[in-house]
Amino acid sequence: MKNTLVICLTLLILALGNWAAASALQLAFLDIAIPYAGLALVIVYFFKSKGGMASRRLDMSIQGQTGIRMEQENVVPERSYVLIGSLLYLFMVLVFTFFAFREYFLN
Predict the structure, then answer these.
(1) Alpha-carbon gap, residue 59 to 65, rounded angstroms
(2) pTM passes above 0.70
């Protein structure tokens, strides 16, 4: 139940952020929806991932600057429901955009 709530809350926050960005830039909701969803997905992935390539690169950069070697710990990847919600939002936006512009895509 909690996981479903997190996914729904993520979808709501992304939709409200998309609406706010579209209003601020005076664009239609669908015109900015795909870039917004893609950017949100990248940001969520970067901040929610643990022990990924970006984290290891940052660790190596810090170790190179300070000269202090830190022990690497093996991180077991855990399921991020915010990331799942962001992926779901991107998929929903892609489907909705294709449906809205189906005449353009199919002709």
Answers:
(1) 10
(2) yes
